[in-house]
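To whoever is covering the structure queue this week,

Two jobs came back overnight. Logging them here so there's a record in the thread.

Job A:
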Amino acid sequence: MWCLDIDGTLTPPSEHVSAPAVALLKAIVSHVTLITAQALDYCVKINVGDFPNLVTEKGFLVRIAGHDNVRPAPLEVPGLVKEMEALLAKLGGGLFINVKQAGYAVGHPAGPRPAIFDEVVALMKEQSGRYDAYVVEETAGFVDITLADLSKASSLQAVMERFPGYIPIAAGDSPNTDGPMLRQAAAEGGNGVMVTKKLAPFPTVPGPDDMLALLAWYKALI
């Protein structure tokens, strides 16, 4: 059972999953679960919204064999977003906020990480320290504050509970957000593949094209 992070692992930077990639995934659909931190509307936009096995928003929607199980969104932590909006207004610099069900993410325009981003990260860590339910994770271009008990690792665990006897193969490109999922796959007796990591019997996976080549190889086996 492949558990694939969509963003970055299957897409070049700032691009969506390509039509050939979607076609390949759907050709081995019974063996693949797509896992993304994005919402369902994003999945619809890139033409995988009808994928029968899909986990979005770090476990808010878990779809197995076409059956959806949706967790209720947590209550908003008082003042959390308001404080961040006030900081962004003061800092300027083109920073933007993306409010999510599990918290929010702050991003910066393409290019080098701006120095003012340190203040964003500092405030997020201060906020997460006040509210134990939240955790701060920084990836390329974004910093997220999300619920600590929701992750791609917990999503993978939910998937594997529905597929007893399957061996997971997890693929991701971020040590922060995908790392726990890859380690969870290893704990289940499977393999985790990261873009900078070589893990036998799989080759190094330096980008989306190689990830798709690996899936094509897998398709030939089944």
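Job B:
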Amino acid sequence: MIWRIIGVLVLAALIVTGYLWIKDWKEHRLQIEYRRYAGAITETSVAAELYRNKKDSFPVVRDSILRKYNVTAKEMLDFKERFKDDPEEWAVFWKYVTDMTDSSVKWWQEELKKKPEISADSVKVEIQSDSI
């Protein structure tokens, strides 16, 4: 009788542990997928802004970004369609996108602060000193 109780308890513990492990594994896989698509969307958005006036160059850059993340344009559309009936999960995904975009913007702002700025006055002074 005691062995049955111990066996049932061990079996229940194994079932609970397996359930929790599978749940964590699925959540981890979902986060990896979200990061992949969010990265592709973030970089494509930045590239669209950078190449706004160079319409011929943007498709090349976009395709290289999609290759980097191993995603096709069709897969991006299919990924979007998956959330059509689940707006809460779509909001969770867009949180990833906004976090990545914010961190990219902050990084670029820091990089721009590092570069010395050339003012119009310093350029005039250099030109005037060269002509003398």
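Note for Job B: The helical segments are 2-50, 58-68, 73-81, 87-114, 120-131.

Please reply-all if you pick these up so we don't duplicate work.
Q.
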